Write a sequence for this structure.
């Protein structure tokens, strides 16, 4: 028996709806398959890039350790890039002196036995010197430096002019910190001041005064040299000393002390001791470009070990 035309129309419409639904479901499944395939491919590329980065890192660590042990670090080592061609891309390593910065942990002194930290007045003064050279009012700079020292030191008692972070709802680490950005929440620090100061800061894994390498410090960062003096050393003079550096470097801090430009400059014995001609800390920047993807890592290395040991590793976006 032939169904009425109206029922035939309803049946055809149902079939068309089912076909349309199946098409939608199929498209969604296909889209998921494509996304999953892309994710798997990207994961594979990232894994390969990570492997190449680790290989470059290992080579750099061995070379640094060997050069430091032999005392034969080339004078222009910061200008030398270590590059490798890899399948579908390239891997490049760049080195910089990781100690040419104000170590925020220098605002305290660490006991080598107990690990306890106490405020370091000379470190506080140098932080305030640098901040003032960078345009922060001196009184405000001293207050921020004191607050940071109080925040890092081991006790929970605020020192005069300091802060344990309670007014900002912060829990003080009461230990050496791992990243300079951790200081942004301390008393007196504003976003504007943090933006001005952080490019000059670092967090080395030791307390004590910041090591400043007179043979690798760039003239455009002469403030890090000028901050060491109690008086008599302007940024312009510091920059001229760095700009006049021989091609092979000064090679000895005694040579620097005898420079006529530093006659009359007042620096403590501790500050003179901060001047270095041999680096200990190395910033290793590794970039891997592979199949359209890019991996960037920054590794802080300790050159006292052979091969150089890893202090910390950070991955960041290009």
């Amino acid at each position: 028996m032939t169904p009425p035309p109206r029922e035939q129309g309803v049946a055809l419409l149902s079939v068309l709806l089912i076909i349309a639904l199946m098409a939608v479901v199929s498209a969604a499944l296909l889209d998921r398959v494509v996304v999953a395939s892309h994710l798997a491919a990207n994961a594979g590329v990232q894994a390969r890039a990570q492997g190449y980065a680790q290989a470059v890192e290992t080579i750099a660590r061995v070379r640094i350790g060997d050069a430091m042990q032999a005392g034969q670090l080339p004078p222009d080592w910061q200008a030398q890039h270590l590059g490798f061609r890899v399948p579908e891309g390239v891997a490049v390593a760049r080195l910089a002196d990781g100690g040419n910065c104000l170590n925020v942990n220098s605002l305290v002194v660490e006991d080598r036995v107990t690990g306890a930290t106490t405020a370091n007045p000379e470190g506080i003064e140098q932080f305030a010197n640098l901040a003032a050279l960078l345009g922060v009012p001196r009184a405000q700079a001293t207050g921020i430096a004191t607050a940071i020292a109080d925040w890092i030191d081991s006790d929970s008692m605020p020192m005069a002019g300091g802060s344990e972070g309670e007014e900002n709802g912060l829990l003080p680490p009461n230990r050496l910190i791992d990243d300079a950005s951790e200081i942004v929440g301390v008393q007196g620090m504003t976003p504007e001041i943090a933006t001005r100061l952080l490019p000059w800061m670092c967090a080395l894994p030791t307390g004590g005064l910041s090591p400043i390498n007179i043979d690798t410090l760039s003239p455009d960062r002469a403030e890090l040299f000028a901050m060491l003096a109690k008086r008599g050393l302007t940024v312009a003079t510091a920059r001229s000393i760095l700009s006049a550096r021989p091609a092979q470097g000064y090679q000895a801090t005694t040579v620097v002390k005898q420079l006529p430009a530093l006659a009359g400059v007042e620096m403590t014995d501790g500050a003179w001791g901060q001047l270095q001609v041999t680096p200990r800390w190395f910033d290793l920047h590794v970039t891997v470009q592979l199949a359209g993807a890019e991996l960037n890592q920054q590794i802080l290395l300790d050159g006292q070990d052979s091969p150089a040991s890893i202090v910390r590793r950070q991955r960041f976006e290009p």
